[in-house]
Amino acid sequence: MNKSILIACLLSVSLCLHAAIETYQFDSPEQEARFRQLGYELRCPKCQNQAIGDSDAEISGDLRAEVYRMLKDGATDDEIKEFMVARYGRYVLYNPPLDKHTLILWFGPAVLLILGGIFVGLRIRQSKKALEAGESQT
Amino acid sequence: MNRLMVWLPLGIFAILVGFFFKGLSLDPNEQPSALIGQPVPVFELTDLMTGERLTREQLPRQPFLLNVWASWCITCQVEHPYLTQLSKQMPVVGLNYKDTETAAKNWLAKLGDPYALQIFDPTGRLGLDLGVAGAPETFLVDSNGVIHLRIQGEVNDRVYAKKIQPVLETIQ
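Structure tokens for the assembled complex are given below, as produced in the milestone run.
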């Protein structure tokens, strides 16, 4: 019993803790908030599904540094996103803009839901009719 | 009508199988480059070997490969013999990415230097402008300096035959 508690304790200890530690100095809390927001909205080009804000990949660090540099230079959020899209493609946007390439992305689920609703509705009406027809026969 | 309904799940299943089958041959790590059809970005760096100033005006005036590599990159070592072989048919320009001068030079001294030019980019500035996510990456550039193809990862004979050669034929 004691042994298993010990093992459980040992397993819960993380031996290697190396989160990326970067120190950025911001001019204002708003600027810092924008940095965090952009880090959350830009996707790491090397990772499958991680934002640059919480990825340890080398490239994410580079992109964070670039976002920081641009923020300091007074770039707007849109300018920073355009800069990233020009280099890494639309893939880097976690919040893709609505245009003809992203129509399916934005409206596909809703269309599927409506089609599914129509399908289910028709089925219910059909089985109701069948039921009524069956009742009137008996 | 109800007969048809019985086959519906099988139909949906078949469609899913189709998608999954396609997915087997897709590499999710591979992303289209945003720079296809665009010229190589403007840069002003130095040549790793000579220390002289390098700009995009000095890039070859014929179709060439731009190979992003670093001495810390294991896959770069793997593809190096193949690139050496390829450099006999077309120029291969090196972009030494986020590396140190000594490490890069030692690496080339040990493994051989097939590169026509060697752009030294220790900060990764040109790499960033090219949309490089990590080494190795290889770009196929035409005689006007326009990028036509980006390969992420190792270049070998299979990648050459399947991806590079078809595009190369259209720009030669």
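Helices of chain A lie at 2-11, 29-41, 58-72, 77-88, 103-137. Residues 15-19 of chain A have pLDDT under 50 and may be disordered. Further analysis is deferred to the final report.
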